[in-house]
Amino acid sequence: MAPGTVSLTTDLTDAEDGSDDGGGGGGTRDLTLRWSGQISLTRRILAVNIFALLLLAGGFFYLDSYRSRIVDSRVAQTRREVRLIAEAIAAVEPARRDPLLKRLAADTGARIRLFDPAGDVTADTRALGVRNFVLQDPDKDPWDQSAARFLDAVIDVIVMAPRPPLYRERREGARWPDVAAVRTQPIVATTVWRAPDRTPVITAAAPLSAGGVVMTTINARDITRTVRIERFRLSMVLLVVSIVSILLSLFLARTIVRPLRRLARAAVRVRLGRAREVVVPRLPSRRDELGMLARALSDMSLALRARIDATEAFAADVTHEMKNPLASLRSAVEGLSRVKDPALQAQLLEIVRDDVLRLDRLISDISEASRLDAQLSRAQFEPVDVAAMIEGLLAQRAARGIERGIRIRFDRDPALALVVNGEGARLERVFENLIDNAVSFSPDTGLIAIAADAARRELVVCVEDEGPGVPEDERETVFRRFQSIRPESEAFGQHSGLGLAIARTIVEAHQGSIIVESRKDRLEGARFVVRLPLADPR
């Protein structure tokens, strides 16, 4: 990881991250919403919960079925009663018929009428003083009954319940459908009517053994009352559930939508280039997915801010570092046009040559440092024998003769397998930079000691020089870009200040570490220690 960047850490696990990707964008397609994506999240939450409430409201359809079953049960009961009444009338003498009818009407709650074969009324319990069948006038009912009837009518329309015929009194027996049916054939006939107050009226007729017909009429207000009580209970449950559901929906929307809006506003401000003044809320008290998202966005904004800072600092450092050789180069070129002395001209040309080499080295290091992070993220790691790599590197340097007489000693145990997983070219650059750094700070007759060993499943490579060493308060500074602790005797510009920064970036990309410390066997000298995880021997 390049200096000047920060680590982006979130609560998301690798498995969650991979499942979201879906392998090349599949997860994005799975999260795409068509028409519903145009609707506010709050409205969608409310719509889902209201839809569930509408399913609960479907219980009113059940009430219609419940009422139909009660009516059918009452019709069957009325059929049995009218049959028994006909048998009881046939079993008594005419003189005892009226007291029997009065008692039966009181017991069954029905109005009983007898018709002769011609269809005329011969007996009526109302005329006998039993007024147990009285239709209520809806115009005289209180407002709550009127409201209940209106609700009955609305629900009947919604559930498409069949509408019974309106009950009206008839004087002649032939005008009653039940009586007419019994006169045609000896059966028990029943009809369900609708009273003016929308309560059911049930009529039933049965034949008499002596000729004629007996008919009972009952106003089953208890059916309507029972259905209304159940409907009221269901309405209360639906009302309470609706209130609770709406409140919970609003609470859910508040806990989801409001944080999302805050995060969206912060993200927009970051996009508009106001990252300096934007504080993305981290929502530390939330342990759900929104909290994870908030912390991921916050970390991302911090990483973006650090990357911008690093880029700006890098650009400023590049400008500063390039100005020095350019100024020197310009002065030397201008002097060439005025100086006639061949010796001075040769000296100025040497300065020009050195400045060109410094610029070339600086530009190369800057180019590599700027591309290093991206290249390492795409690198394919493979087993690398670090000991053999260092030996080959030292052989190449010896062949080029660039050590100025400095001796380099490499110590290793041939029995140890010093193999790591990594990119060979990059790891070679690490040790080349460390050797270059040691050579540049060592005296011409100095010794550079390189040792490679394995300890605790780690490869440990130490590079020691005989230079002035690194002060303790500067041991982190030397790994920053364009930072170099130069000896007083060295001419300015011999180092770009990027070698150690590049080395640390490569080592950390290989899950390793690099530090500098003082040598323990002498007062002066620096000791660079590189640690890398060894490859699995399997």
UniProtKB/TrEMBL annotation:
In alphabetical order, the GO MF annotations are: phosphorelay sensor kinase activity
**Claim: Ion transport is one of the keywords in the record:** no
CDD domains, per database record: HAMP, HisKA
GO CC term, one of those recorded? membrane
Intracellular or extracellular location(s) = Membrane
- Catalysed conversion reaction: ATP + protein L-histidine = ADP + protein N-phospho-L-histidine
Membrane spanning residue stretches = 45-63, 234-253
Enzyme Commission code(s) on record: 2.7.13.3
Q: Which InterPro entries match?
A: HAMP_dom, HATPase_C_sf, HATPase_dom, His_kinase_dom, HisK_dim/P_dom, HisK_dim/P_sf, Sensor_TM1, Sig_transdc_His_kin-like_C
Cite the Histidine kinase domain residue spans from the record: 317-536
Please classify the protein's predominant subcellular localization into one broad category. membrane
SUPFAM superfamilies associated with the record: ATPase domain of HSP90 chaperone/DNA topoisomerase II/histidine kinase, HAMP domain-like, Homodimeric domain of signal transducing histidine kinase
Q: Which residues form the HAMP domain?
A: 254-309
Q: Show the Pfam families listed in the entry.
A: HAMP, HATPase_c, HisKA, Sensor_TM1
Keywords on record: Kinase, Membrane, Phosphoprotein, Transferase, Transmembrane, Transmembrane helix, Two-component regulatory system
Top-level EC class as recorded in UniProt: transferase
> In terms of domain of life, where is this protein from?
Bacteria
Q: Where is the composition biased (Polar residues)?
A: 1-12
Query: Region Disordered: what ranges?
Result: 1-27
- This chain belongs to which protein, by name? histidine kinase
